[in-house]
């Protein structure tokens, strides 16, 4: 069985609000699926339904062949979770905290101790083992949550915004841990607000807005939705005549050209027209600055939802 997670028409209604709306998807063994969406899109609610923490209003989920509602105990053994909210015990040291988690899974004392030691080492927290969670730095706290998720060595990991609140350096450091988990063949569902994180880590991405799936595909496939390969921004020396802008828009290799912030933004479907565009603008207005970037998931997200992902 290659499909390890199957969400079927998941729906969650809170009062008069549909937090998750008829959401279906599958995740294959060893795959990393990203759930991407703005605040309140329904990502955490989806994860909570998948792990059996809250009951769906409609629909359901199968994990490792087990129905989440009917076989919660079997399902529990298959996953680890790094939750969005930080919460630590005020009295337990890291060692005790992790030991407590593993013992819940019924490992012997000896095995549990071994697992805790290995996991602390993996998370590079062995030198902080006697501290409590609240005494750690932000990056270390996130690593502790990853360690908790990992300590029973489950095949599936739910990582709910594993890097939220971290500075870029700590975020990039955490990516290495997630890449290591991927290499170990774990199946991962990851939620994030950071598009570069989704591009970097996810094999497939589902974009959610108002609880609904609005797009699904590999990061590259999603970029093709936009039909744009590159976005060229040209800042002219003098103003570009409207006639030239209209002419550029008519090229077959151009999806659109927009005058924005004293620059012309050209959405290119094909690069072959670029030389022609440059020579046209050089003759008409001269060029002060030029920048070419590949269309990113950010551009796709803007195109699909009309809004930027907030952090
Ligand atoms: N227990 C609850 N009671 C009432 N409403 C809830 C509850 N949990 C979530 N909601 C609402 O459901 C919607 C989806 O919330 P959810 O936490 O799933 O979003 P999210 O995509 O994880 O957002 P964020 O990116 O901010 O974490 C929100 O409008 C939220 O207010
Ligand atoms: Mg959330």
Mean pLDDT: 91
State the domain count: 2
Q: Which spans have pLDDT < 50 for at least 5 consecutive residues?
A: none
Tell me which oligomeric state these chains represent.
Answer: single chain
Strand order of the largest sheet: 6-7-8-3-9-10
Rg over C-alpha atoms, rounded to the nearest angstrom: 24 Å
The CATH class designation of the largest domain is Alpha Beta
Helix amount: 25-40%
User: What is the correct CATH architecture of the largest domain?
Assistant: 3-Layer(aba) Sandwich
Element-level helix/strand string:
EEEHEEHEHHHEHEHEEHEHEEHEH
Description of the structure:
By secondary structure, this protein is of the alpha/beta class. The protein has 2 domains: 3-218, P-loop containing nucleotide triphosphate hydrolases (Rossmann fold, 3-Layer(aba) Sandwich); 227-294, Alpha-Beta Plaits (2-Layer Sandwich), CATH 3.30.70. Helix content is 35%, strand content 30%. It has helices at residues 43-50, 72-76, 94-104, 109-122, 138-150, 168-183, 195-201, 219-225, 242-250, 274-284, 297-305, and strands at 3-14, 17-28, 32-36, 58-63, 66-67, 79-82, 156-160, 187-192, 204-209, 212-217, 230-236, 254-260, 263-268, 287-294. It has a 6-stranded mixed β-sheet with strand order 6-7-8-3-9-10, sandwiched between helices. Strands 2-1-4-5 form a 4-stranded antiparallel β-sheet. Strands 12-13-11-14 form a 4-stranded antiparallel β-sheet, with helices on one face. Helix 6 links the parallel strand 7 (156-160) and strand 8 (187-192). Helix 3 (94-104) crosses helix 4 (109-122). The radius of gyration is 24 Å and the shape is elongated. Adenosine-5'-triphosphate is lined by residues 14, 19, 37, 39-45, 84.
